[in-house]
């Protein structure tokens, strides 16, 4: 049984998918069970580089992952932000050399955010 907004990866082909509406079935890709991407929450050194942070600049609100490299080999592939009750979701895809930041509506107060690193996977402050 999946849960809303869980992220799964195929270890063979690299497909990454997200559950919009949960179901009973097992997620399979390339003939293998897909691996659920657990949200890492450590605040140790590696966590500090991956943890999405909220920044207010020039009266605008951003979710940033500015301490992380954005090279071809190692970069943040996306930042996702949801409201607390998961009724709205915002996703920004990033490419190498992009700035790892995502402008979000200023009125979004209680948010949860995750970042996805191509090497170190999923990080964030979601709590389930
Ligand atoms: Fe990383």
Structure in words:
The protein is mainly beta. It folds into two domains: about 30 residues, Desulphoferrodoxin, N-terminal domain (Rubrerythrin, domain 2), CATH 2.20.28; about 80 residues, SOR catalytic domain (Immunoglobulin-like, Sandwich), CATH 2.60.40.730. The protein has one helix and twelve strands; from the N terminus they run βββββαβββββββ. A hairpin with a 6-residue loop joins strand 1 and strand 2. The longest helix is centred in the middle third of the chain and has 6 residues. The chain is globular and about 50 Å long. Fe (ii) ion binds next to loops. The site of fe (ii) ion (FE2) has 6 residues, from loops.
The biggest beta sheet reads: 4 strands, antiparallel
Q: What small molecules does this complex bind?
A: fe (ii) ion
Uncertain runs? none
The number of E-state strands comes to 12
CATH superfamily of the largest domain: SOR catalytic domain
- In the CATH hierarchy, the architecture of the largest domain is Sandwich
Shape: globular
The gyration radius over C-alpha positions equals 15 Å
Distance from N terminus to C terminus (CA atoms, Å) equals 15 Å
The level 1 CATH classification of the largest domain is Mainly Beta
The SSE order reads EEEEEHEEEEEEE
What is the helix tally? Answer: 1
Q: Which secondary-structure class do the elements indicate?
A: mainly beta
Overall mean confidence score, pLDDT: 93
CATH topology of the largest domain: Immunoglobulin-like
Helix content: under 10%
